[in-house]
Each structure stands twice: as C-alpha cells, then as structure tokens.
Specification:
28% strand, Acyl_CoA_acyltransferase, four-stranded antiparallel β-sheet, GNAT_dom, globular, alpha+beta, transferase, Acetyltransferase_Butenolide, N-acetyltransferase
Length: 162
C-alpha cells in the first residue's frame, strides 16, 4: 500500500505550534507538491515566522518517530474575521487522514472560541479536499495579480454547537 493511501500507522498528536516550529512549517509550505508548476510562485518566498505563530492560533500534527516527533501538517485559525488561514499536510503524509484530523481539531477550536462559521479561501488543487471534509462552497476569490494570478474557490465551515 502506498504512503498516500495507507491509514495512519503511527500515533498523531496535535499541539499548539511554537516559535521553534517556524522553519519546519515554512519548509512544509514551500515544499508542497500542490504548489508546483504555475502555482510555485505563490509560495516561493512564503515564510511562517515565529511572529506569525505568536499572532495566530497555529497547531501542528506531530507523528511519533525515532526522532521524538515529526511535523506532518499544520493549520492556522484566525478568529477575527473567522478564517482558516493555512492548512498544509506534508506530501508524504497525505491520504492518511491527517488533514481530516486537523480539520476536526480546527472545528473544535473554533467552537471553543464561540464561532459558528468560518471562511476558507482554498488553493485550487485543495478544492476536493474541502468538499470531502464538509466545507460548503460559497463563492470565488478573484485573482489579485501579481500576488495571486488565479481565481480561488471560497468555502465556509459551519461549526455546530455541541
């Protein structure tokens, strides 16, 4: 079974990101296979710095391994206005449910913060993922060259109270 389709075979912990995670998160963003080809410029100079981590509710999914934990993915939740700002899963860890775990965790954090919905401006190749995890398509964020030269789908997560 390939790593893209195998179930989670190790324990995964989701924890709050800390400043020392910044370089690993930046590498994860810049190295994402979803941003190859025409999308590469969007992340070429992207940086997830300690200042970003301090200012946002950023969480990492860490897999247990012989090195004491490896970052497999992360997300960042912005409370005002409510938005899922970033969500990345390492290429070699995709297809194993880590993105789904991060979304469930994000929804729990959003609920705890009193949010009933939040927006996501998706990267085009991630559109199917957001459909699968329950986000509802609400519109289109139009291109804003030179920063983003393509239209992007907008989604909304509705956060039910428990």
């Amino acid at each position: 079974m390939s790593s893209r389709t195998s179930p989670i075979s190790q324990s995964i912990t989701i924890r709050r990101a800390v400043a020392r995670d910044a370089k690993r998160l930046t590498r994860l963003v810049r190295g994402s296979g979803a941003y190859e080809g025409k999308y590469a410029a969007a992340v070429a100079g992207y940086r997830v710095g300690p200042d970003y981590i301090e200012a946002h509710r950023a969480f990492v999914a860490v897999g247990a391994d012989e090195h004491g934990g490896r970052v497999l993915g992360f997300y960042s939740l912005v409370l005002a206005p409510p938005e899922l700002d970033l969500l990345f899963v390492a290429d070699e860890a995709q297809g194993r449910g880590i993105g789904r775990l991060l979304v469930a965790h994000m929804q729990s954090e959003a609920r705890a913060a009193g949010l009933d919905r939040l927006k996501v401006v998706s990267h085009v190749p991630a559109e199917d993922f957001y459909h699968r995890v329950g986000a509802v398509r609400t519109g289109t964020a139009f291109a804003n060259p030179p920063a983003v030269p393509w239209d992007r789908p907008e989604f909304e997560f509705r956060i039910p109270s428990e």
